[in-house]
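Class, discuss our next protein.
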Amino acid sequence: MVEKYPPPKPSRDATPESGLLGVDLGGNHIRIGNVEQSGNLIALRREPYSEQAIQSSSALVEQILAVVRQMVDEHTPTSPIAAIGVAFPGPVNQKTQRVLSLPHLPSLAEIDLHEEFSRAFGVPVHFDNNANAAAFAEMSLGTARGIDDWLYLHIGANVSAGLVLGGKLQRGKSGLSGAIGQMRIDPERIGDSIQLETMVSAGNIVRRTRDRLQRDKTSSLSRLGAMGGFTYDDIITAAHGGDDLAKMMLQRTGIFITMAIADVISLLNLAMIAVGGAPAGRQFLVQAIAAEAQQRASEEALKDCQFVAAELGAEAGVIGAALLANLRYRER
């Protein structure tokens, strides 16, 4: 039997008043939060990337360390930091703790950022991808409490998954499991397969919608496009406002995702698919994924599987990163 994760509790050298820091590198912002040992988030900050950080690896590292240093300095007098967890929008080798790739940000593959963190702050540090971090937060505090076999889907600047079997995150040989964005689909069913992420990441949803507007000028998004462009959040807002094109683009996004995960549902007999990413967009994706799964997954497996929106919001990666850092430290 696979050993399940125990409830969060203080690190070996932590006092009851010790806290944790969680950092989540999003598509446009660095989120950082002070998290209690129980998982309660007591402070959250969001800082946009500087122009230099978007262009330079060294500047990105400098900004990340500076943001963490500021939070450490603010909270150490009242709540000493016991461990720091960082969630990245890309794969992290769990053996080396190297960040292998990042969409839309400079590469950190040649930088031992984990060593720089350890040296700078002198506390245990753990790196993970953002889907695993958010999945762990949902296991601890959210919609997946008590669920042993399930999949967390992250749809944002990157596309990835946190796979939980037997109550434990599954990482694969080097910790690279969950890379559903790299799975290949044939969206047009013409024998031409492409990576899922090229269709369903936030940026690519915007791209597909912009291309569609060349043929459909009736959408409210046309006005935004004429005024300089729109974002993934704008598409979601338009869908909530009843815009047919926006709703269709989110529905097609759900269909593409299901092309990649339907066989996973059948193979692993999952109890739940939890959809993360932008909270306001989850309901559209859940509906589309559930409907398409009826056409693609086995009938028996679908009887066991529920499709839900993840419960936690943008803070999930921050909380999960912090709790995973605490867990990894206790396991040593």
